[in-house]
């Protein structure tokens, strides 16, 4: 059975075009079947992450893991042009359409096929963001969190978004276990954005504002 986390989708391609306006910016997207959140708008969980994200300031490098057709990565780049944004997905169709949407909006981001952090060995970021693939199973989303630690510089932050009662509670617990801290940045409509900071000790953890 084909899922949005299938590496090589073979399902028939169906496209939907839509625009999204936020913070005075307007972006145009082509959403495609076989990729996460295919439809005529950005899904609610991703949108809440986009609206609440603030760079940690630890570095200019941001990573979007499981980028789908690119809404999180591209909205972050549009709002914070100085950031160097990288977007990865195991789904080859997702990678293709993220590149396409970047071109449509004249935004430069790095886009690569990667099974989580597989293609990013040795690289570190100031922020890692994700609407994690809950449906891919606990092993996958646990690795997304635990491996994020080594891909963040000190002071960097992991941001995840989820429906709290549909996997979010588990994500939050694993983030707490991995980083020693986690906070609910925002709660809305059953969705939460969780944030953990990689720090040497609790006193050095910057608080979200």
For this entry, give a set of tags:
alpha/beta; Rossmann fold; 7-stranded mixed sheet; disordered C terminus
Radius of gyration: 16 Å
The CATH architecture name reads: 3-Layer(aba) Sandwich
Largest sheet: 7 strands, mixed
CATH class: Alpha Beta
Shape: globular
Strand % is: 25-35%
Chain-averaged pLDDT: 90
Q: Spans of 5+ residues with little confidence (pLDDT < 50)?
A: 202-209
Estimated structural class: alpha/beta
Q: What's the CATH topology label?
A: Rossmann fold
How many strand segments?
Answer: 9
Total discrete domains = 1
Q: Helix tally?
A: 5
Major beta sheet, strand line-up: 5-4-3-6-7-9-8
In CATH, what is the homologous superfamily? Answer: Vaccinia Virus protein VP39
* Element order: H for helix, E for strand: EEHEHEHEEHEHEE
State the distance separating the first and last CA atoms.
43 Å
Task: Describe this structure in a few short sentences.
The protein has helices at 44-52, 71-79, 92-104, 138-148, 164-179, and strands at 15-22, 25-32, 61-65, 84-89, 110-113, 125-130, 152-163, 183-188, 191-197. By secondary structure, the protein is of the alpha/beta class.
Explain the overall architecture.
With 209 residues, the chain is an alpha/beta fold. The protein has a single domain (15-204), classed as Rossmann fold, CATH 3.40.50.150. The chain is 28% helix and 30% strand. It has five helices and nine strands; from the N terminus they run ββαβαβαββαβαββ. The protein has helices at residues 44-52, 71-79, 92-104, 138-148, 164-179; strands spanning 15-22, 25-32, 61-65, 84-89, 110-113, 125-130, 152-163, 183-188, 191-197. It has a seven-stranded mixed sheet, with helices on both faces. It has a two-stranded antiparallel sheet with strand order 1-2. Strand 6, helix 4 and strand 7 form a beta-alpha-beta unit. Helix 1 (44-52) packs parallel to helix 2 and helix 4 runs parallel beside helix 5.
């Amino acid at each position: 059975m084909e899922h949005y986390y299938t590496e090589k989708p073979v399902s028939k391609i169906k496209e939907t075009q839509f625009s999204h306006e936020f913070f005075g910016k307007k972006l145009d997207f082509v959403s495609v079947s076989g990729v996460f959140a295919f439809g005529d708008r950005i899904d609610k969980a991703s949108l809440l992450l986009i609206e609440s994200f603030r760079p940690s300031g630890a570095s200019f490098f941001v990573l979007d893991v499981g980028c789908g057709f690119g809404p999180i990565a591209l909205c972050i780049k549009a709002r914070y042009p100085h950031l160097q944004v990288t977007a990865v997905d195991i789904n080859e169709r997702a990678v293709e359409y993220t590149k396409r949407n970047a071109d449509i909006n004249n935004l430069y981001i790095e886009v690569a096929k990667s099974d989580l952090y597989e293609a990013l060995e040795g690289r570190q970021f100031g922020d890692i963001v994700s609407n994690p693939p809950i449906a891919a199973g606990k092993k996958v989303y646990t690795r997304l969190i635990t491996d994020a630690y080594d891909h963040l510089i000190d002071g960097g932050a992991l941001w995840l978004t989820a429906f709290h009662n549909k996997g979010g509670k588990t994500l939050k617990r694993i983030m707490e276990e991995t980083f020693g801290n986690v906070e609910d940045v925002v709660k809305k409509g059953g969705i939460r954005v969780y944030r953990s900071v990689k720090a040497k000790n609790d006193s050095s953890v910057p608080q979200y504002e």
